[in-house]
Design brief:
RNA Polymerase Alpha Subunit, Chain A, domain 2; globular; 41% strand; Ribosomal Protein L25, Chain P; single chain
Length: 199
């Protein structure tokens, strides 16, 4: 298993203005660590270290060792805010990992066998790229697999259609929200083609 380590410093200069200054002048990413039996902690991390770590998709769904001013804490990513146009990470929320306690984390979705519905004349729309899960740290999956091998044109795949790994619960389902994950639809016909067919 890869070791995911991030160095950070405690932050006392809080607020939106301070966060903007950190990003612009010091190339730092502000973040918050919460959970467990400790108070939330505001921290900063070097933007280039954060960008490098999260080039690896697995970092989003693995326990990360956060080294805050020399003190180590195990955390997972709870949320990540990216710049809407440039996509660099602007802010992160981490949750402390406590042995025996469930945590929530965002896990990427991997779609497999996409060629099967395409061969049947369908087009696939991915509705989500990640799913929020609840589990103990030891059960945290690297990704959730969505198998489209048997998907027909007109099929909508919901969260309830997916098999959650052992010990893992989909947060949205637990709240009664059976959201769509993907759908297979007939190809959208261009207006000119539709007019030609009508003639």
């Amino acid at each position: 298993m890869t070791d995911f380590i991030l160095n950070a410093q405690a932050r006392t200069d809080l607020g939106k203005g301070a966060s903007r200054r950190l990003r612009r002048l010091a190339a730092q990413v502000p973040a918050v660590v919460y959970g467990g039996d400790k108070e939330p902690a505001s921290i900063t991390m070097l933007a280039k270290e954060v960008a490098k770590l999260f080039e690896n998709e697995a970092a989003y769904s693995h326990v990360i060792e956060l080294n805050i001013d020399g003190k180590k804490e195990n955390v997972v990513v709870k949320a990540m805010q990216r710049h809407p146009a440039k996509q660099f990470i602007m802010h992160a929320d981490f949750v402390r990992v406590v042995a025996g306690q469930k945590l929530t984390a965002i896990v990427p979705v991997h779609f497999i066998n996409e060629e099967a519905p395409v061969k049947k004349g369908g087009e696939i729309s991915h509705v989500v790229a990640e799913i929020e899960v609840s589990c103990e740290a030891k059960d945290l999956p690297e990704f959730i697999e969505v198998d489209l091998a048997k998907a027909e044109v007109g099929t909508i795949i919901h969260l309830s259609d997916l098999k959650a790994p052992k010990g893992v619960e989909f947060v949205a389902l637990a709240h009664g929200d059976d959201k769509a994950v993907a759908n297979v639809h007939a190809p959208r016909v261009a207006p000119e083609a539709a007019e030609g067919a009508a003639e």
